[in-house]
């Protein structure tokens, strides 16, 4: 049905905004199919090029879905409400360009009958661009919404990016075929996709290796005091106090920058912590900031104190190699582009600890008490290719630490946990996720949360974690199989388009 332009625009904004309910904490996965099908039907009936159709849908999608960003801007950025809202509108308008590009190319180059072959390829490409342009923001990709759906089994095979393309294919079929009253093919394609996903979900791509007792500490430190010098010792003592009853575990995890003091200045504390942990036969992994005072280089690090391998203790030393430096830095929060211009403008662009250097893309696994850990700090867990590059055949589990205190009571932390679940499913590895104020959680190798702490509470949690070995198809081949399939589909669509034009000309 053709709607008047105003009502059509409202429908697109609302359908995009409704996608929020498909992601955590709501996780109503069928919403994805309804929202995208509505948008694609509007792409068919709206007379413009398709760009504005995709942009309006994307504006609703990101405007509602990442509204949590406004919490950090408004509460910690020091900007007036008009400026913070303006920045959010600018960010969402930028992110909406990517679905707009996919919709534009699809409508510009192909007839609607060929959209099921073309749109998944253009969508996949635009989402790939979104994952690295301007340092990348691959948040809220539609594949994440299917972690609890019958499509969950596809994650270790084609990854979240492949699941996104599969979702777009199903929604395009539903949109175009139902407009022509071809309901049976739609039901058949969906049934095959869901059934195969269910079968794949019941197959184990990696094998259990060894079970460890792991504990995580959630300090629940207020963001406003984390970098106050007079709070250094109280915060560090809080983590030691919370960890004292946990020393019987094989491994203890503290969150990102749990130690709020530069590593060089915290050496006495770390050496004592190392000795205590080694004496108890455990290891502690903690986030900490390190600085080279000569070069002024600064890194967001993870370090290990206590036992490195069974029977070999006391291995922490300042400048040692058993550490991880964050590679993918968060714009504004950890580095400021054009900082000479932006830093004087507002506190948002001059936050404490916002001038970090990058670590390498690939780094050796952390080794803690014989456990091999593939680390990801905060935002990095959203980058599947980087996580995959650091998961090897002998990696036991994935470790991700974060500080989501920036996002208050919004749904940002729940979405962050959902992303970590996707990495577990893709890699066939358990994920242990330690955060400052939640959501601290254990995730098994299928992407299911097995235990978690409540948000905004100080405490600890312990659980048995079974490390796995081996590689999933996605870890082994990454996105290349899906790229090959999409190249075939877009090539077939182009060939069929030429054939149709030739027939009409004849």
From TrEMBL:
For this protein, the record's InterPro entries field holds: Apolipo_AcylTrfase, C-N_Hydrolase, C-N_Hydrolase_sf, LNT_N
Tell me which residues make up the CN hydrolase domain. 217-467
Q: Which CDD domains match?
A: ALP_N-acyl_transferase (cd07571)
How is this protein annotated for GO cellular component?
Answer: plasma membrane
- Protein keywords: Acyltransferase, Cell membrane, Lipoprotein, Membrane, Transferase, Transmembrane, Transmembrane helix
Q: Which residues cross the membrane?
A: 6-39, 51-73, 79-101, 153-176, 183-201, 478-496
Please give the function described in this protein's UniProt entry.
Answer: Catalyzes the phospholipid dependent N-acylation of the N-terminal cysteine of apolipoprotein, the last step in lipoprotein maturation.
Where does this protein come from, organism-wise? Salinimonas sediminis
Ranges in a coiled coil: none
Gene name, Swiss-Prot/TrEMBL? lnt
Q: Which family does it belong to?
A: Belongs to the CN hydrolase family. Apolipoprotein N-acyltransferase subfamily.
Enzyme Commission identifier(s): 2.3.1.269
What's this protein's name? Apolipoprotein N-acyltransferase
Pathway(s) annotated for this protein in UniProt: Protein modification; lipoprotein biosynthesis (N-acyl transfer)
List the PROSITE patterns hit by this protein, alphabetically. CN_HYDROLASE
Query: Per its UniProt record, what NCBIfam families does this chain match?
Result: lnt
Q: Main localization of the protein?
A: membrane
